[in-house]
């Protein structure tokens, strides 16, 4: 019976310890797993949004570039015809011109000229194999449209195919262009020779008297756009397609998607609503229903739709141009394409967490055994001592351990040695103690805080009125009434009975560990520690009554006799409800303030990141604008000049040829300067530019640069004036970077100076610096210009006076290079009164050792 009782207690404590560890780990694992999955979902949403934005941008850029080719072709052909360089009545000349032109533009499928007399001449690129053909329909072919095979030089060989009775004036595309009287896209049509769609841009051609000569046309194959859409990265099942406002498909990333259908022997365009791809058809139906027709969509849209219980993110971008196009670009990205790997990782995380919980439970079982096994031994020893077995071996109590259990074991061992002497002397002092107790009771009853006294065995000895009011019990009689049955007491003996009574003290008085469902552990009670000779204070104990819970602060101390033997343990406790509430209010206030501070800090970080992203996006847009604008113009000029030279070389004079070459050289130099500036900017931003500082005579470099720009300055009747305080002054600079800095500054002075003005270049030696100044008599800068003077891609109000080109990067590069050489640069200016750029560098001062530290 004794063994069963102790075993039940042991297993209960082990279960509590194992549960504490296991429940905490399971809860933390679930919370971390949920947060990880939630963050993964948010990350996927951000990735989908970024990918969709990039895809739409790439599609828009592709359409802009792809659809810009026909207008360029028509512009070139129209200029060649109108200036007389191309005779449309010369059939052979027209054929060879169109053949050479279609070779220059590999994206084109047809480039043609149809005359008002019914003649048709065109160059054709086959879609299936890329072979070039010449197409002719005129009186010589009896108005049959003959498609000729040709050699590498464009000479006709054999007739590959012939279409009878071809009159271009009766074709819809011809009539559309004539009606519009301007460049216009004619309707999308199906090629008669291929299973593909085409579209083209047409332009009417008039003579100087305003009479219609014919129609120029340039056609594109829409299959190229479908292949481009198919090449975009859109997950496993993502789709992109382009439709007209009437719902007809223009292109689709789903290459198996037919763009036409055969109805009653006639070829008809396929509507997106009839697509065999679920994503495309569902998205088209959704747009029709939501906006009451596609014609009502005029702004970019972003929304989510659910298809087959799967979330899909949709972006719709209207696309228009100056020649009548009105399309919708639609991109659909299924969320499940991006969540598959996250779901797999979540499953792996679950099994790893389950394995970790199992290991933790096993460790908790070992830990519980390590804690409870010594306590069981101490319980057995205490029971034997209470039965009067003083001379027992206590070596098995682990009193050599260096922790609390070891201390308790040593206390038990010491108690076993001292208890016998205590009981021997107890009887002789009972009378004196009873007298002292009566006086002590009077004092204790007057104290307004609870006092609870136990004897050396832990049995309640005394409780004052304040204690009984808090406990709501007659502390002594209730303890005895709820003790063990008398039969069991007789069987166990006095000592064992006392021990078991003390073990039930938390249960009898409803003492709980604060904020838990468990009774206060006996081994942690202050009385227990006091009975072991320690003074203990706790504030995590609660007395729970049916109508309220009273938090307690308990302090216990042992009472020794003259032999330093423990005879009593006194616990003093008081209700700390008010203090606990005050502490809780203080903690809540602190937590609230910390939460506000954390939120404020997080918001500031988000604002900073957003500002950085906006700045980077602006720089990207400015860079793209410069590349598109500043490269497109010179490239177009070079292309037009080369074409003009190619077709007019036999009739052009030498002076005109030199003029054309000068214009080509100027355009090429503009592109070279822009690319060189962009490369310099990239090197500066990435930190690749490293200055090699050496003592250098910088005045000689300035004079060389001035000499280089003398001819340019003379063309504008500009005079250079130089002045140096000490022409032999030596500065610490990188010679190449210094040359690049002043090349930019002096070239800008020449570029922005009006005709018939002066430029002053001066050098002044200060105490430990050398200052170089370049002053012009140009328009100067406004306050608005000064704020962005040294910024990247800065476009200022001042314009070059001689038609020169500026990329907006020169002064940004100057500032970066000067700072790399430990110098500084600034500008002093007045509006309409010129500008002075000043640059300072460290002065080289010779020492006795004449050594110099390069950086």
What would you note in describing this structure?
This protein is 48% helix and 23% strand. It has 855 residues and is of the alpha+beta class. It has an eight-stranded antiparallel beta sheet, sandwiched between helices. Strands 17-16-21-20-19-18 form a six-stranded antiparallel beta sheet. A five-stranded antiparallel beta sheet has the order 10-9-15-14-13. Helix 20 runs antiparallel to helix 22 (810-820). The longest helix is centred in the C-terminal third of the chain and has 72 residues, at 577-648. The protein starts with a helix and ends in a 13-residue tail after the last strand. Mean pLDDT is 79; it is low at 1-10, 483-495 and 848-855.
Q: Ends: how far apart?
A: 89 Å
| Count of runs of 4 or more consecutive helical residues | 22
Q: Could you give the count of β-strands? A: 28
What is the structural class? Answer: alpha+beta
Radius of gyration: 48 Å
Using brief descriptors, characterize the structure shown.
855 residues, alpha+beta, eight-stranded antiparallel beta sheet, six-stranded antiparallel beta sheet, 22 helices, 28 strands, elongated, disordered N terminus, disordered C terminus
Short description:
It contains 22 helices and 28 strands. The protein is an alpha+beta fold and 855 residues long.
Fold blueprint:
Blueprint: H1 2-66, H2 69-82, H3 91-104, E1 108-115, E2 120-125, E3 132-137, E4 145-150, E5 156-163, H4 172-180, E6 184-190, E7 197-206, E8 212-221, H5 223-230, E9 239-244, E10 249-252, E11 260-263, E12 266-269, H6 278-291, E13 301-307, E14 310-320, E15 326-334, H7 336-386, H8 404-426, H9 430-446, E16 450-455, E17 460-463, H10 465-471, H11 475-481, H12 486-492, H13 494-503, H14 505-508, E18 511-513, H15 526-531, E19 536-544, E20 549-560, E21 566-575, H16 577-648, H17 654-686, E22 694-697, H18 698-708, H19 710-715, E23 719-724, E24 730-733, H20 735-752, E25 758-765, E26 769-776, H21 783-787, H22 810-820, E27 824-829, E28 835-842
Parallel strand pairs: 23-25
Antiparallel strand pairs: 1-2, 1-8, 2-3, 3-4, 4-5, 6-7, 7-8, 9-10, 9-15, 11-12, 13-14, 14-15, 16-17, 16-21, 18-19, 19-20, 20-21, 22-24, 25-26, 26-28, 27-28
Helix pairs in contact: 1-7, 7-8, 7-13, 12-13, 16-17, 17-22, 18-20, 20-22
